[in-house]
Amino acid sequence: MADMPEVAHVFQWATAAGFLTRRGTRIVAGPCARELEHDPLAAWTRAAIVLLDHGVLDGFRLWWRKTYVERLDADAPFLLAVIREARGALPLSTIEDRVWPRVAASYGYDLDDAGEREHVAWLLRVMVAQFADLGAATRHDDDVVLTELGDVLATAATTILVMDDEDLHYVECIRR
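and the corresponding structure tokens:
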């Protein structure tokens, strides 16, 4: 699995969602595998929630080099809500421009630190790619657009936002 991190990610994701399970050295259908056939929307919802819970940036791997990776990962549902609030396409460059000062301020980076800024931009692009793999978003040039499934997921994230003022403040920061 170390040689194929993308496959490892999908395997760990499917296992965490209950679609697959290990029995000794064998991989078999998990307890939720029947949902894939009988209720695809419920299966998609389960997969989406598990991915958001474990981390869009592959939170199945532990001990990230940078702690802000975990913070960005934790804010993935709220990023969906922000894109939804844009009512259409939101330029990825706009998201990057608004997230970088927050990361820089939180971790004491100079705003002119091009290396760290590019790393944050790369992580945001990875998040958008994960949303696209999930079927929640598409990317057209620099614009990020939610799909109908993404809108459902963002609606759930928006409901959570109402409950937590601190995270709502973060969404307000991104929107500005």
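(Above: one complete record from the training split.) The first strand starts at residue 20 and ends at 23.
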